[in-house]
Fold this protein.
Amino acid sequence: METADGVALAIFLVVWLGYNWLNDHGPLAGKGLSSAMNVQRGRWMEVMSRRDLRMIDTAIMAGLQQGTAFFASACIFAIGGCFALLGSAERIATISADLPFYAGLDRALVELKLLGLVLIFAYAFFKFGWAYRLFNYCSILIGAVPMPSDTTVDAATRERAVLKAARLNQIAGRNFNTGLRAIFFALAYLGWFLGPYALVLSTTLVVAIIAQRQYRSPARAAVHD
């Protein structure tokens, strides 16, 4: 791997990790669309606790689980596709030699890039898998929230049950968002197959798109208080 490739890969990793930190724990935490939706998740649990019939809440949870399972399955297919491409690394290297704006690849570098893509999708799969499990646990906690008509339960116990369900729902949502963000950065990573400069360009473009949607989009303005 040449110096330009190493620098481009380092920039990609720093931008990805830095954006995750800024969005989840840094000064931008609490200002984006995801944090606004976390507030709505808490409100949802509060409204749910006042309902005697909670079919709508279980339907929402089922929808969240189905979406998470879809992305987890997509990651598995993507990993399988990357391993299939490993058998064609020599052919990919030959094709890249014909590109006018890149000096070409050798087989070892193609395999290295494909294995890096596998790692990204594997990371996303684990995030989606954990989010799916947490949504399942959240369904159980929703079932454990006392009914409004149950006069044997005091207000403090009811509030703790609602808080547990809301908190677990928020953690599941954060893991889902992290997995989805990994898929976005996997798309940016594909630019590396066109060269180190393409990787830097695609990384910049992806960060600009997801940051705009997180902090400057109409969806954020509609949800954020």
